[in-house]
TrEMBL record:
A molecular-function term among this protein's GO annotations: catalytic activity
Protein name: Prenyltransferase alpha-alpha toroid domain-containing protein
SUPFAM superfamilies in UniProt: Terpenoid cyclases/Protein prenyltransferases
Domain of life: Bacteria
Record's compositionally biased regions (Basic and acidic residues): 249-263
Cited Gene3D superfamilies: 1.50.10.20
Endpoints of the signal sequence: 1-41
């Protein structure tokens, strides 16, 4: 089934969740276990948007995600968000420290039916840690994330489901933002670190030469996934949404994963990130300095959001020269995408500009900061941009990936229909 030509694509933030959902569904078919995406919460859509929320569309699937990215991007460039915006995010937290995509009734306690989501929780943790003054909320969120770490050291979007590269990477970034040392956060059974959990998704010397160094989303031995690779190449370096620019003169060449006698020449997170970066560069060069969508029906369309993720990953590895060409592509092609997508897209581009030392107020002729501010409540003022990651512990349904609303609806309906493999005993583990 292909998206209807007249249908608008998804926002980047929802599409991120939809991409994750698509792969999770495919993984569940193979594994025969539950992997119901947490994006499809059963919270009813609001008739009126809450005060302080960024964007104008239904927040049911991405409210906390887009709010967190917006607040984080503003703080990164020295904008002090409105109190109502911060209060809305804080009020979304469950008593156990977790976050779901959206809670319409903040005064109502989370229960067993609340679909707690590690991605939303990690994003909120990163934002609140950066803003400061929310030490208790950050601590509770970190403790919850630790409590749902899988035995392999990684995380799934939903507690109890198999780990995936994207969720593990996002959580690593949140732990670092909260002042934790990710390598010291080990699983209760097996003592595995998040980095050990992440590296199991990298294709090694037994893969085809053009696929070596790439990461799969979930299943070991599955096809390389540029979205997962971009996330993992950043996460493996202990970085999150905010990557500080390496500075002038800091430019390391990208070195592909090298093999000797069928084994990698080097091991460890840094080498894994290097291999992932090399795969991304090869894909960018192949496609004209942008990545292509991996979503069904949109495989030949540019994925603006994922290209931005790739640029951040390259910047995190101090691969300045390699990041320049896709960055220039974004400056020429991302403005319309961001305008259509709203807060999450603007926030992502602001953070991309920051990571590369580019002025977000003049990004290809667009003032990304002003545009982001316009999608939510008027900022409270300006402050010095955040530099310490651990201090005080009107969008539309579009996405550059080109996948339509039908995909979220289709997956959501499939889950709602009660497909057997989505309803295993693992569900109980999620009912915290």
């Amino acid at each position: 089934m292909a998206p209807m030509a007249h249908q608008a694509p998804l926002t980047h933030s929802v599409a991120f969740l939809a991409r994750r959902a698509a792969t999770a569904l495919a993984a569940a078919v193979v594994l025969g276990t539950a992997a119901a995406p947490a994006a499809f919460a059963d919270t009813p859509s609001p008739k009126k948007l809450p005060e302080g929320l960024y964007g104008t569309k239904d927040p049911q699937y991405d409210g906390v995600w887009r709010q967190s990215l917006a607040l984080l991007a503003q703080d990164t460039v020295g904008v002090r968000p409105a109190a109502s915006a911060v209060n809305w995010l804080v009020g979304q937290q469950c008593a156990d420290g977790s976050f779901t995509a959206f809670r319409a009734e903040q005064g109502k306690a989370c229960d067993a039916k609340t679909m707690r989501d590690t991605n939303q929780t990690a994003a909120a943790t990163s934002a609140l840690a950066a803003l400061g003054g929310h030490g208790d909320s950050v601590k509770k969120a970190v403790n919850w994330l630790k409590s749902v770490q899988n035995d392999d050291g990684g995380w799934s979007s939903m507690a109890g489901s198999p780990s995936d590269a994207n969720s593990t990477s996002v959580v690593i970034g949140a732990l670092a933002a909260a002042g934790e040392k990710p390598e010291s956060v080990t699983s209760k059974k097996g003592g595995k670190t998040p980095y050990e959990g992440l590296l199991i998704f990298q294709l090694g010397c037994d893969a085809k030469e053009g696929e070596r160094g790439a990461f799969t989303f979930q299943l070991k031995g599955a096809a390389p996934n540029a979205d997962a690779t971009a996330a993992a190449a950043t996460g493996a370096l202990g970085r999150g949404f905010v990557v500080e620019p390496a500075g002038k003169g800091a430019d390391r060449p990208v070195k592909p994963l090298s093999c000797k006698d069928g084994k990698p020449a080097g091991t460890g997170p840094a080498q894994a990130a290097e291999g992932g970066a090399a795969y991304l560069v090869a894909q960018l060069d192949k496609n004209g300095q942008h990545l292509l969508s991996a979503m069904p029906g949109a495989e030949k369309q540019p994925d603006v959001g994922n290209t931005a993720d790739a640029v951040v990953a390259l910047a995190a590895g101090a691969h300045g020269s390699a990041a320049q060409k896709p960055l220039k592509w974004l400056e020429k092609n991302a403005a319309d995408w961001a305008k259509q997508n709203g807060p999450a897209a603007y926030a992502q581009l602001v953070l991309t500009a920051h990571a590369t030392g580019t002025d977000p107020r003049s990004f290809g002729g667009t003032d990304l900061v002003a545009a982001l501010n316009a999608t939510g409540p008027k900022p409270a003022g300006s402050v010095a941009p955040s530099t310490a990651p651990d201090k005080n512990a009107k969008d539309s349904d579009n996405n550059g990936g080109g996948i339509g609303v039908w995909w979220v609806v289709a997956v959501g309906l499939a889950i709602g229909a009660g497909i057997g493999f989505l309803m295993s005993g693992r569900k109980k583990k999620n009912e915290l």
